[in-house]
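Re: folding output
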Amino acid sequence: MITAFVQFPVPAHLTHDAARQLFAATAPRYREVPGLIRKYYLLAEDGNSVGGVYLWNSRSDAERMYSAAWRSFIKDRYGAEPSVTYFASPVIVDNAAGVIEEG
């Protein structure tokens, strides 16, 4: 499995409530994305940057998401280019499900 960390600055300070509303509006886009296991939306404590942590089945699944069209969507919506960093995720502890996964 692969974890992708995405981050970008926002042009204006976001409060927790404003970020929640903004993120909730885009969340349905990610419901049926092939290979996406989980997505966490992120808001920096200072409210000046946002991002996400995505857990993918494979890097190729992740790379399909982070296309030129996706980067353009982020830039148009938030006014900044996103950075994407990939990490191998060989072991995942899921306390909610009570499992440890190895991949």
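--- second protein (sequence, then structure) ---
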Amino acid sequence: MRSYGPGNPLVFSHIPKSAGTSLGAALEQVLQPTVSVAGGIDTALFGGYDDLENISPIFRAGIYLTPEDMPADAELVTAHVAPGTTTARYPGADHISVLRVPQVRFLSQWLHSRSLSDFTLRRWGPSGDAFRAGRLPIRDYLQHAKVAPSIDNTITRFLAWPHPALSRMEFIRESDDDALYDVALERLGSFAHVNLVENPRFLADISAWLGADLPQVQLNERTSVLPKYRTDLTAELDPETRALLDHRHRIDARLWKHVAEQVLPDTDPHVVLAKAFDKAVKRYNEVLHAPYDASLLRRAVYAAWDLKAKVAR
């Protein structure tokens, strides 16, 4: 197995909502690092909700504004930190990443946002509105420019940041598509290993590359949504909304298909993408209609917090 030590860690570039929490936990179990960065974000995907002064200190500590904010002696990094930051901080590190069908990644993020109560978001202060935006209908959410980095070619933005064509509160211009695609593809080409969530063997492939068997870990899987934020996902995805969804992920889809051609050479990427999307819509619809699984105590806390906020308003 490769040896990773202080200043020369293994960096898992964890693209949000790409099944990375489970992989990060598996890497932690196997590598057992003395110092790790197992959570946190940098500013690569910051949108218009960036009121850092009013974020709880416990969350603020995990926001890395510069590469130097990250511990120099890390042995494993599995955070939502773009390679533009980690390559500057750890120039000798091996980077790996896992991509997910972009439209499915988006739906997972939208569903996650709808599962978060205002009580849960209280520690984010005004920046919690970035999550509350997910309570909008999908079509409106896809047009909400203040969260552009999270809904508009997020994979490309994560990989290409800090490219000058990227804006926190503007959608990517089509005239910049090719330039951003080339930068993101070059970044992936520099990684030690890249795979896909949709590859049935992705964990085995990463284990083979690492030289150690990674355990199967299932974490951060959404099973229900707050009742007041449930909706019919199939109805939400009418033809106009679906077209906008594909448009917002047009560069990401090119990147995903490129990787699919490498790791799934005997399959048609278009077929794999379509099947993954249909499967996700079915599963997420089931989650949206599943009985709410929060405890009575938690429900009471959420209700009390909502009432307090309503009275304050």
